[in-house]
Every structure is written in structure tokens, then in C-alpha cells.
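LOG
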Amino acid sequence: MTSATDSPSPAAIRLIATDLDGTLLLDDKTVSDRTVAALAAAEEAGIEVFFVTGRPARWMDVVSDHVHGHGLAICANGAAVADLHDGNRLLKVRPLERPIALGIVHALRAAVPGTSFAVELSTGIHYEPAYPPFHLDPGATVAVAEKLLQEETPGAGAPVLKLLAHHAELAPDEFLALARAAAGDRASFTRSSPTALLEISGPGVSKASTLELCCAERGISPAEVVAFGDMPNDVEMLSWAGTSYAMGNAHPAAIAAASGRTATNGEDGVAVVIERIIAERRAADAAR
């Protein structure tokens, strides 16, 4: 495993893809001055920056001021692409079909008693009475998952971006393994929280698969992408990118998937790598 200081930089980086929580953001959910400067320097050097996160688009205000160029962000673990320059408007949605979500609810209730659910729609989140409340979303509907997933007319409801499942007693990785065993063939299961909270997306939907779509639209290959992440929901993206870095505070699965490691989020690990990429690019330009 290489480190941020000795891993060779790709010859031509065109895009940086970075997770937010535990990666780009400090623990207080702010962006450090050093990281702000590094992101601006990357864009000035012609390198696009994509924020790729499990957060819904409405929770992207933490980085909206630091979006340059295209203004796009991949949200909800790849289920949506949002335009942060246009009020977080969703440009692309890759939904979890409601019948599939309902089947997963029934499967997990049977296999893992004590599981409670929330439903993340393109219009906001709603959750069951036993699910930990979302204080950032005071207008959420509280009802059983069957009611939350019900449509008066099939196809008329807002798209489901994610189904979330929570367990108050199990260890996070144990819960993920049990859920995948029960219904992993129906959808994409992952997690990014330190608690036993699972994020369930449509089949094949991940940060990586949506990032691949966005890169293909720009003619950007995996070899031209540098990615950063810290949790299991970053694994596919870290594996897909030509160069990738797990944070110093990363989950073992993210470390195993990445081609290198950098410092922790609290030590500006993303900025450390970006600064080196920019310095090497400038040195190469000066040598020409």
C-alpha cells in the first residue's frame, strides 16, 4: 500500500471524485481553508471536481460555496445527480423501484427482527415511528414503510432514491452482512454511518456506476480519475478509479479497495494529495 507522499501521480488527471463526510469535510462538517484552496487550484488547473456522497441533494449546502465549473454533484450514493448551481435541482435519477423496496422491507423484517426503515424520496425523507428521527427534516411523514411506499396511482409517486434500514442492537458490519444475505440479490446494499444504518439503492446503483456515467459523458476514462473515500459506500468508486486514496481514518474495506492512503479528514488528507498533483503538474509544465 502506498502513501500520499510516495504514490506516483497519474500522468494526466482530469477529474477528482471525493466523498464528503469523513473525507473532504472536517468532523464539524466544515471545509478547511486549506481544502478550499486546493479545490480551487484543481479547477484552475483544468481538473474537474465531483462531490460524490451518500447525502441527499438538500444536504449539500456544506459544499455549495466550493463548487466550481460544472456545479454537479453525485448524491444519495449514485441515485441522483444534482446541479448545485441551480438550487440542487436533480438532473438524473436512478431510482429504487417501489415493489423491490417493499420486498426488501418484508425480507429484512423476517431475517433481522428489530429493523426499522426510512424512505428517501427525490422530494425528501420519511420514516417509521421506531426509526431515529431526522432533525434536519422536520416535515417528514412518520408511518410504517408499507404506507410510505404506497402510491395512489402506480408510477405517480416521487422516485425512491434510497431505502434506509436501522437496527438498534447489531454491529454495523454484522447488520450489513445479514441484510445482504437476506436480500442482496435484489438491490445494492451499503453503509456509511458509524451506527447500524444501511443504505439500499436500486440494482447496480452505486457511487462508482453513476460516476462512470458522468465521466463517459465527458470522455474521461477511469485512468484519468483520482478518488477519495473512507467508508464501505466508497468501495466501488475507490476500486473503479485509476488512482484512489483511502483516508487515514478509513474503514478497512475502503483501505483494501484503494490504491493508496492519505492523511485523515482532520489532517486535510484530500488537500495533501491535490496539492501534490498540482505541484507535479506545474513542475512538468515548467520543464517543457
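LOG (cont.) second protein
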Amino acid sequence: MKYLVAFLFFTFSITAFSQQTTVSKKIHGTVISGTSTFPLQDVNIININKVKGTVTNVRGNFDIDAEVNDTLHITMIGFQSLRVRVTNDWVKNGNAKIELTEKAIALEDVVVRKYNLTGYLEVDTKLIPDQENFRYSISGLPQGYEAGEYSPKAFSRVMNSIFNPADMLYNFFGNKPKELRKLKEMKKDNTVKALLETKFDRETIAILLGIDKNDIPEILQHCNYSEAFIQTANDLQILDAISQCYEQYKVLKK
């Protein structure tokens, strides 16, 4: 009798453990154009939950590690970005067809005039500053704070940002520890890194961190990155900047 009880207990434990453990598996998909129905090559697919990425092949096919309820972020230049939830049917059947919608882009003439240049070299060299961006270093920290002409008193601003409980940095870093831990995971995946190097729209970063992309410039301003850096850096550089700021925040907070 005691052997029967032990066997039943062992069987029940294995069953309970298997029910609690969800194993990731490869799911397959095909991305096509919603207009032409042709397969799309080099579409970027990122599993937001696992911070893993891949791209489609010449037939529009892709494989990626995922489990039920994971969210895939799908992007390609010239098409609307799409987020797709992994369902039980998808995992069971192993394949799904996904359509992307083309963007309607109207280009207009844009004239960029940061400086009012005259065309005379002797005059114009005096109008353009020699060094617009520089960094402040803080003793004990491996990284410094970048500051531009619109970021005076960098050191005092950083300290106020860290120690003022009502400040944006305090609220942002304090309320999103799980999302910020994804920063290191993002840089481990070569597909994600390659994608971020080519993007400047902050969309992928915002989705992975679970924030509004309009908040990113304000976060970097509080970290004393210059306006020029915020406007011109690619998404991977922005990701590194937020990551460095977070590490410095943790040091100063202690």
C-alpha cells in the first residue's frame, strides 16, 4: 500500500511540475505584403517578452522561440509596424501568415538651417561653434554625462534628478526594474542590435521598455545628454545612453 501511495505522490508531483513549467518552442510564420500578397524578405521580428529577434528569408518565412501569449513586434521600412500575440492555435499548428500594410508617404521639400550662414568662409567660421557637445565626469563613476549648450550646470541637474523623489528619473527607473533589466538582454541578441543600429524612430525601444517614445527625449535630457545627441543618435546609441544612465542612477542612489 505504501508503495502505491508513493507512486501516486510521485506521479502527481511530476504532473504538477509539468503544468507549471512552460517550455518555449520554435514557431514558424510567413510575412507577406497586404497589397501584392508577395512574401517580404528581411522583415524584422522581435519577441518582446524574450528579447530575441530574427528576420524573414527570401520566401518571407521565419522561425523564432516563443510561447503562448508572447508578443512579436514586426517591422520593415515602408510598412506599418505590427504587434502579434502568439496564440495556442499558432503554437499547435506551427505556422501563421502575417500581412503588413504599406505606408503612404508623401515627401515634401525640407530646408534645414541650423546656422544662418552667409557664404563667406571668414564670417561663417565664427558663426559655427568649435565644440557643441562635451561631457562632465563624476569621480567614482566609469561614465560621464554629456552636455551641450542647452545643458548648463550638468552636475547639479544630475544630482537633483537622482535624489528628488518627484523627478522623472526617480519615477521612471524606480517603476520599471523588469523592463530596464531587458537592456542587457537586448544587446546580447545580434538581430536586435543590428535592427536598432538602422532605426532612428525610437519605436522599438519604447515597445521593449514599455514606455511612450515621446518620453525618451525627456529621460535623456534628465541624464544630461545634449539635444544634438538626442536628435541624431540611432536607436542602439539611445539604448546605450539609457542603459548608462540607469547604471549611474543605481550608483548614485546608493
